[in-house]
Amino acid sequence: MKSRESLVRLKEFQVKEKRRQLSQIQLMMSEFERMSKELESQIAIEEKKSGISDSSHFAYPTFAKAARQRADNLTVSIRELKIQQDAAELALEEAEAEFAKAAALEERDNGIRLRA
């Protein structure tokens, strides 16, 4: 059955696409985490240089304030990506189940044709 083969190929493509999307999200998360750690390190160095670690102090370094804001923004982005990752994992599981079902149907149809 030509349509079953097409369906299986479609489902296989969808699984690959969901895996790619999940991988991309995970890569972005790890990159954001790396950048956040780098900023935290730079903030610590700046605070040590100035001797002021209280961000509400009037002489707190401007660079440290800006870096803190960027690090906070990255943390928010990581949280949002985690939500997207959970959704992508669920979508991948569903796509894999649909692919398995379509492959089983095609295999069953091939078995029936071979016996006939």
Q: What is the helix/strand order?
A: HH
Q: Sum up the overall morphology in one term.
A: rod-shaped
- Give the integer mean of the pLDDT values: 93
The number of distinct β-strands equals 0
Estimate what percentage of residues fall within beta strands. under 5%
Name the structural class. Answer: mainly alpha
The end-to-end distance, rounded to whole angstroms, is 14 Å
- Measured as a percent range, the helix fraction is over 70%
Number of domains: 1
Mind telling me the C-alpha Rg? Answer: 25 Å
Helical stretch tally: 2
Low-confidence region ranges: none
Major beta sheet summary: none
Describe the structure in brief.
The chain is mostly helical and 116 residues long. 89% of the residues lie in helices and 0% in strands.
Task: Give short descriptive properties of this protein.
single chain; 116 residues; mainly alpha; rod-shaped
Could you characterize what this model shows?
By secondary structure, this protein is mainly α. The chain has one domain. About 90% of the residues lie in helices and about 0% in strands. It is built from 2 helices and no strands. Helix 1 (about 1-50) packs antiparallel against helix 2. The longest helix is centred in the C-terminal third of the chain and has 54 residues, at about 60-115.
